[in-house]
Write a structure and sequence with these properties.
Number of helices: 0
Shape: globular
Order of helices and strands: EEEEEEEEEEE
Length: about 110
């Protein structure tokens, strides 16, 4: 069974930074893509950023230039560095892994507020 364990969420002031981490464990075959999605209250879940097994990256327009996704293949871990955070970045952030199946983390709350 595959588990995704997220960490790094919390409360941050506007303009601040956070680094989210997601470690995958279990029987994982051929990870294709690891990424982060977010869901704000009353809104649909949306892609924030993703990185493929060839290190190709994709970002939502709303975070482009403020966020960096990276991965450590040896540790099956993906990171999301978010800078210049805005109140509209407030959401539950979910780690996503696409391999033989698609897996989701339990979510970590990010709140941007003064």
């Amino acid at each position: 069974q595959v588990q995704l364990v997220e960490s790094g969420g919390g409360l941050v002031q506007p303009g601040g930074s956070l680094r989210l981490s997601c470690a995958a464990s279990g029987r994982i075959f051929s990870i294709y893509v690891m990424g982060w999605y977010r869901q704000a209250p009353g809104k649909k879940r949306e892609l924030v950023a993703a990185i493929t097994n060839t290190d190709s990256t994709n970002y939502a327009d709303s975070v482009k230039g403020r966020s960096t996704i990276s991965r450590d293949n040896a540790k099956n871990t993906v990171y999301l560095q978010m800078n210049s955070l805005k109140p509209e970045d407030t959401a539950v952030y979910y780690c996503n892994l696409k391999a033989d199946y698609e897996y989701w983390g339990q979510g970590t709350q990010v709140t941007v507020s003064s």
